[in-house]
Amino acid sequence: MAGAVFAAPAFVVPQGAMAEVVPQRIVSINLCTDQLLLALDLKERLAAVSFLARDRDLSVMWREAQHVPITQASLEGILTLKPDLVIAGAFGHSRLLGHVERLGIDVLRVADPVSLTDIQQTYLDVGTRVGASEVAEKIAAEIDDVLGTPSRDTDVSALILSPGLLVHADGMLGSSVLAHAGYRNDASGQTYLSLEQLALSPPDALLIAERPNAAPSRAGKLFAHPALQQASRIKRVPPSALICGTTETARLAAVLADDLRQEVGK
């Protein structure tokens, strides 16, 4: 049976027999699908998640992941778990997933959300596929409550900066977070910036998504450079809320919106 892809922003709900069969042993091999499945509370039907799910810097569900077996995304490891559904990201592991499909095991590929709206739809689509629609609907409603009404646009510029000076440009999840909060994204369509660019044209606020427990690296050291420290107001934001679209992404957007409203008096 061919695998299915949930691709943001156009989501595909599988039809026919594949949609009707509720899987009983589900394996996730992707950090972001780990987050979805752990939140959907599948209990013993979740046979394993990726090892990254337990990383407290990357995973918002790291506590829940302590109680679920982990897998290294190898064919042998997956077959040992005897799954009837393997869930992965939209990209990567093509050869592995091809082998899995040829062995008759269903595969579901899920695209990463690129907006706050996508997050809710992804929970709903995956929830439908794995037989957890009610839980998914509760999560979607919770995200609605957390987000509330988007803030009015302001002239306050901001950048979300990840290691290596990666910025969240338009079309990325972080850009949607900034828009909800009322910030003007200063990324200007660029994915990476140099220190010189940031020093010459700093935004009003820099939101730094740095892993607190990461090993020292050249990319990480850039965050401490005086050109950044003196150029803008700096806020620290959890990288786990921006890597994968989850309820925590919505909470971050809501917190940033509240902070900015207080800052500009709106």
Please characterize this protein's 3D structure.
This protein is of the alpha/beta class. α6 packs antiparallel against α7 and α8 packs parallel to α13. The chain is globular.
Keywords:
266 residues, alpha/beta, single chain, 13 helices, five-stranded mixed beta sheet, six-stranded parallel beta sheet
TL;DR of this structure?
Helices cover 40% and strands 15% of the residues.
SSE layout:
Blueprint (H helix, E strand, L loop, with lengths): L3 E3 L10 H4 L5 E3 L2 H9 L6 E5 L11 H4 L4 E2 L3 H6 L4 E5 L4 H9 L3 E5 L5 H14 L3 H15 L9 E6 L3 E2 L5 H9 L2 E2 L9 H6 L4 E4 L9 H4 L4 H4 L3 E4 L3 H4 L3 H18 L2
Parallel strand pairs: 1-6, 2-3, 2-5, 3-4, 5-6, 7-9, 7-10, 10-11
Antiparallel strand pairs: 7-8
Helix pairs in contact: 6-7, 7-13, 8-13
Percent range for helical residues? Answer: 25-40%
What is the quaternary state of this protein? single chain
Major sheet: arrangement of strands: 1-6-5-2-3-4
Decide which structural class fits the backbone.
alpha/beta
- Secondary structure tally: strands: 11
Strand composition percent:
15-25%
Shape: globular
